[in-house]
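User: Predict the complex with FE2/S2 (inorganic) cluster.
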Amino acid sequence: MTFGEQAEREFAEILTRYPDKRSALLPSLHLVQREQGYLSPPAMEEVARRLNLQPVEVLQVATFYTWFNLKPVGRHRLQVCHNLSCTLVGAERIIATLEEELKIGENETTPDGLFTLQRVECLASCGTAPMMQVNEDYHENLTPEKVRALLAQWRAAANGR
Ligand code: FES
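Assistant: Here is the predicted structure with FE2/S2 (inorganic) cluster placed in the model:
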């Protein structure tokens, strides 16, 4: 598999920061995910080849962090924390609202490719629970109303409104 021109430039720049190529694994995986949306097996093999790692070493890291997608996800990846602090203040209601509004279950993607719903472990934002991470942004102190408003906003943006 090949990287795009911009990704090639970024990859070369990442390598300049790490005298030991193997240490560039995490930023390389971030780069691939940003480029392609997820880490496909050929992409992980390519990263392994470029960093002189075994494919299984790359896979171990990719599967350790919930941040990495191992299969295609929607444009908005909704990762709802379901650990104690969030659960105590309504995480289950947030998840139920999302399931109801999106008509999908956990680890599913809406047919229009806009949303993927996932349940994740603590995202270190317990003081502003309940919360979810959507791509690179945190949405905190959630209520069902806030969730519906966010979905409406993302749907409107997708429809160019
Ligand atoms: S328990 Fe939800 S962010 Fe920590």
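The mean pLDDT is 95.
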